[in-house]
Amino acid sequence: MWLKPEEVLLKNALRLWVTQRTSGYFILQRRRGHGDAGGRRLVGALDAVLDSNARVAPFRILLQVPGAPVYSAIACGELLNGSEVYWAIAIGATLEEINQHWEWLEQNLLHTLSVFDSKEDIVSFVKGKIKGLIAETTSSKLAELEEEPEKFREALVKFEARFNFPEAEKLITYYSCCCWKGKVPRQGWLYLSINHLCFYSFFLGKELKLIIPWVDVQKLERTSNVIMTDIIRITTPSKERDFSMFLNIDEAFRIMEQLADVTLRRLLDNEIFELDPGLQDPTQITKRDLEARAQNEFFRAFFRLPRKEMVHEVLDCSLWTPFSRCHTAGRMCASDSYICFTSKESGCCDVLIPLREVVSIEKMEDTSLLPNPVIISIRSKMAFQFIELKDRDSLVENLLQRLKQVNASNPVYYNSLKNKDTVLSFCTARCSLVVFGYLSLLLLSYSKERSFFLHSAFQKQGFKERVKESLWNDHFAEYGRTVCMFRTEKIRKLVAMGIPESLRGELWLLFSDAVTDLASHPGYYENLVEASMGKCCIATEEIERDLHRSLPEHPTFQSETGIAALRRVLTAYAHRNPKIGYCQSMNILTSVLLLYAKEEEAFWLLVAVCERMLPDYFNHRVIGAQVDQSAFEELIKERLPELAEHMKDLTTLSSISLSWFLTLFLSIMPLESAVNAVDCFFFDGIKAIFQLGLAVLEANAVELCNSKDDGQALMILSRFLDHVKNEESPLSPFKNHHTFFSDDQEPCAVTEVADLIRDSYEKFGDYSVDLIEQMRYRHRIRVLQSHEDTTKQNVLRVVIPDVSIVPEHLEELYDLFKREHLISCYWDLTSPVIERHDPSRAYAEQYRLDHQQFTNLYKLVSPWTCGEHTEVLAERMFRLLDENMDHLIEFKGLACCLDVMYNGEMNEKIKLLYRLHIPPALTEDERDSQSPLKNPLLSTSRPLVIGKQLKQMLKDLAKEKDAKMEKGLPKMSQREFIQFCKTLYSMFHEDPEENDLYQAIATVTTLLLQIGEVGQRSSSSGSGSGEFTDDLQGEAAASDQDAVFSDTVKTPWKDSQSSPVAKGDWTVSLEHILASLLTEQSLVNFFEKPLELKPKLENAKLSQYSLKTNGMSYPSRGEQVKVNSQQQTSLSS
């Protein structure tokens, strides 16, 4: 084990160690005499004399630094030559233990040490790494023993101090590892929290901080490079980061995948993702919760169970398998409503036992042959014997409690099955539907009754069909015929051959466990049909449009009877699950289900497919299907490398194969062949579609490699699939209306569907459910980020034509806009901010900011910074942009206002400022901001000299106003003008030309005040525009002039809307303000000087998190420079 570094002084007068293995830097040694009885006594006596601890570990590892005069020990602290103090780091009691340490050093350190320049750096790095491993090992043991996690508390304190996140940013776990910077590893600590991946290192006097939000992760993978054989690579939009030298890299990568998946789905895919009940509040997530969630997801995927099922016990055990006459080793998983078993040998034996089928759970006598046995009896007079169950008493008690709850939840079903004779007759019935007691009356007539959806061809079964039926009946007799049957490799082979037409519907119900849903919800479907019929919505309109496109060539759907049944099933499901509603391809799947099952059975089969077997496939963005398409691309690269090499862009194949996954090949294969693929899907789940798709591509690989374009590749695959036949099917062949080809084309070779399916199992059947789920984790990240990129590009495409900001800067601004939204999602859990991200909305409306978020971002990117007045200006800007009054701002509004600030002409900037100081931006109840002036700049004692040019300009403006009777911006009242002047003064603060600007604005303000006074007197006396300038040099009221920047001025404000000003009120127009400002060159220079957006964006990237974590306090310009200089030393994604 690794030891805490400590100084040890050892005697080495005698050579007590033998070298076992050596490498460039490390030496593994064995204690002399270990394994030799005589030598052991001598060495043991010497150890007792020479060492304070008589029990010296028999193995050690030494660090050998080339060029150094001695060897420094990292195992037991001795020297090979000499007698000095060295560091004891690790010991090994057995050869196996020391070899594990040696292998870890070889894989993680051996090839790394050569990058260091000095021996001191090598020793420092190794010591630091070993200390990290010791801390991580201690933390893991504490977690396992459920002791007080003191180490975790210490790590939490360091995490909070180093990264300064709010308390809501919960730390999940931490690991000692290295982050690679070029070819140099930086030893440090990796912190995984609910929203971020953080890394901290202080090595060789240099500090490194790294913060990567999970929502920025575009790719998470395990790979290798020239130096390291196993690293974790995290890809973000800006760069790649490599992490290695974990004590347990498997666990670290698994937790990273879980956190990335949970966070991305919570923040980017909230339209369909419903977290487990224990994870609704992200602040309650723990490492144990994540591990339990991963276990639950694997359990549900493997047995294809409802999402609500939660695993309670997972135990190693053995199950008696009568067909093999022995106990089969495996694992039992017990959940809310099921007891499941899977053998350790893949495909050997799987069992699914719904608790609704269980009659009793009993403990049997414990013997040497049958240790800790438990007998579970089911209603079909079968019993399952489990042995070697640890903690049997607790397990049985929990199972009985859950069994009681299940029976209590459906007393009608439970009471109807008390008659065991009736139960026995159910279990021998041909249809699995009637194994349930409450349908006992239907059993008597079921042997004569056939679903009216079955075509008459079903009755004309050939010899091969009868042989298949015989094989299945033999199998039922040996393995069972209920949902609790033993599922083995033998049944998989029977399914691959094709299920007989007479048994297909029954076995689909059993394999999908839809039969349990059917039994659990008596009357549910009829109530749904009654509630949904006659209601009109988007889903029902789409259903009506697609009804006659569902297998139109089949006689069943050429009559109103079949169409009506299809309408009822689809409408009932849309009513049951409005989040999905209706999706194209559901009509094709449902029509085939109706051919082999009754209407209610078809409904529950559809529920099983949409909600369990193909999760997230049927929704607005078909995320689940896209994830599997991305995983399919990975499988193509792995299993068909030549084809992948030829088709550089595999998205073409993905777009072609999308319909394979959505319709289970029903839309592109002849029906009699496609149903065989559906057979495999109901037995093996999505794995069957993956392997069948690979088999199709392999069969056409040569032609695809010779294809010249995507269109030719599509034709090759379509022709092949159209000629996949099923010669053994008793069905009459129906022409596939989806085919691209006519009958007059040259003949194509026919492929037997049974051969194609057999090849898929033989060549590509080695993929496990666990592997597919791991691929889904990885590719869900890629798919969700691809959607985010599409959203960004579409938003930018709309905004770019309307602004002058360069696209690169606009893209960075969008990232800041989105991040501001997400930061609120991270820590402001009480606000409905997450609900405002709706991926089903138009692209421009998917991300919107509220008032506080907009204010935070405005402070970071706006060039009009006015000190404390900035927040007031931001509030007015928000009200101005919020045209629909929903209190949310889209990205385009922000981009357009910033475009005016940075790239607009002077008149455009003044117009924007003017609009910020009239309604609706300025409201009646808005508190006047504090005056930035301690003493008024204006004085009535200073005469105002009006030149001839300005007089003429004012006359022209007045005449132009009289001539144009069109509506423009309303005039500004005196109160609004005072606020306008305050804003201008605040904008000039800390400007290099501050004094000149103050004098200029004082002059302009005095002029405009007198213009307003003259206009007011002129309006009151009814004088015309010609008399306007004649009285301009009259003396204005001193009280009004002195109050321009006074905090005590209270101007009457009667209406906050843009209504005409009453006759006789003090007003000034935009034209007056603009003309007055043009008279002062310093003001013109200020508004026309070029402004750079890039520095603001760079500063915002560094400061956005700081503002949030520091309580949203906005630093002054001087403080911003200080913040920037500090943050340049750290790394952020």
UniProtKB/TrEMBL annotation:
InterPro entries: EF-hand-dom_pair, GRAM, PH-like_dom_sf, Rab-GAP-TBC_dom, Rab-GAP_TBC_sf, TBC1D8_PH-GRAM1, TBC1D8_PH-GRAM2. GO terms for molecular function: GTPase activator activity. Keywords: GTPase activation, Repeat. Residues 498-685 form the Rab-GAP TBC domain. One of its GO terms (biological process) is system process. Signal peptide: none annotated. Pfam families: GRAM, RabGAP-TBC. Residues 1122-1133 have a biased composition (Polar residues). Residues 1111-1133 are annotated as: Disordered. It comes from the Eukaryota. May act as a GTPase-activating protein for Rab family protein(s). PANTHER family: PROTEIN VASCULAR ASSOCIATED DEATH 1, CHLOROPLASTIC, TBC1 DOMAIN FAMILY MEMBER 8 ISOFORM X1. This is TBC1 domain family member 8. It comes from Crocodylus porosus. The lineage of its organism: Eukaryota, Metazoa, Chordata, Craniata, Vertebrata.
